[in-house]
From TrEMBL:
Localisation: Membrane
Coiled-coil blocks: none
Location of region: Disordered: 28-49
Annotated family: Belongs to the nlpA lipoprotein family.
Covalently attached lipid (S-diacylglycerol cysteine), positions: 24
Protein name as catalogued: Lipoprotein
Length: 288
């Protein structure tokens, strides 16, 4: 049997929704620097960053505790568990930056919400993986198997492409990153259930297998490099997670300072030592 999940490691989707609604109703703080005018930001003010707990908050805490003071940066870390609230907070000016997402997700969010959030610096890759509480290999999936995948467009498509790359399913020719279960041309008897990404580890025992984002797998005490039945390759992977801000805030000196620290040798070493291949440094420029 695969590694057991830690009970309660990930908050329920309803909690994430409540957080998102709260963020939508929060008045902007004029001191956050989230006005879209980075050149005029006060470099002496704290830089607030919304981030998912693992590994994002852990990486930011390493920077705050070991590098920020010497760099003259006062880092204010805001922990958020879902994939909607961090962008809502940045868009509304309630935080200066966020750290949780990859380019395909941000592109879709901007298109759907009419926001103008931009990447500043890639930091790491969290390989997406297929997990099971019962199965020893992906080849055991077949007729009657139920597999849960993320319900957001980009990560759902990413999950299906992962399964197709290993021959578990087949996708229609030419289908892109936004593939859905409707694009599956050969399912080998497998049915798919789309769930909010944060809830997937908690629901794993209800399915034969689930495709889980790396950060939520880590929060649930899974080790992607060891526990995943299938794991994404790092080379050529477009899903690096990055620091992001409202367009116009890229030149905020505090943001530039944090970007440099997140791409430092010290952070690379911290990621490699702490996550042992389950999180991979990815310091190339966004879009590279």
């Amino acid at each position: 049997m695969r590694t057991h999940l830690r009970h309660g490691a990930v908050l329920a989707a309803t909690t994430a929704l409540a957080l998102a609604l709260t963020a939508c109703g929060t008045d902007s703080d004029p001191d956050t620097g989230g006005s879209g005018d980075g050149d005029n930001a006060d470099p002496s003010q704290p830089l607030s960053v919304a981030a998912n707990p693992v590994p994002h908050v852990a990486i930011l805490e390493f920077v705050r505790d070991n590098l920020a003071e010497e760099a003259g940066l006062d880092l204010d870390i805001r922990e958020v568990t879902d994939y909607v609230t961090p962008n809502t907070l940045v868009n509304d000016g309630d935080v200066d930056a966020n750290f949780f997402q990859h380019q395909p997700y941000l592109d879709d969010f901007n298109a759907q919400q009419g926001t103008d959030i931009v990447p500043v610096a890639n930091v790491h890759l969290e390989p997406l993986g297929l997990y099971s509480s019962e199965l020893a290999g992906a080849d055991e999936l077949g007729e009657g198997a139920r597999v849960a995948i993320p319900n957001d467009v980009t990560n759902g498509g990413r999950a299906l492409h992962l399964l197709a790359s290993e021959g578990v399913i087949e996708l229609a020719d030419g289908v892109g990153a936004e593939a859905t279960p409707a694009d599956v041309t050969e399912d080998n008897g497998i049915t798919f259930q789309e769930l909010e990404a944060a809830s997937l580890p908690r629901a794993l025992d209800d399915f034969d297998a689930a495709v889980i984002n790396g950060n939520y797998a880590l929060e649930a005490n899974l080790a992607p490099a060891e526990d995943a039945l299938i794991l994404e390759e790092a080379e050529g992977n477009p899903y690096a997670n990055f620091l992001a801000v409202n367009a116009g805030n890229e030149d905020d000196p505090r943001v530039e300072r944090l970007a440099e620290l997140l791409n430092s040798d010290e952070v690379r070493q911290f990621i490699e030592d702490t996550y042992e291949g389950s999180v991979i440094p990815a310091f190339e420029a966004p879009g590279a």
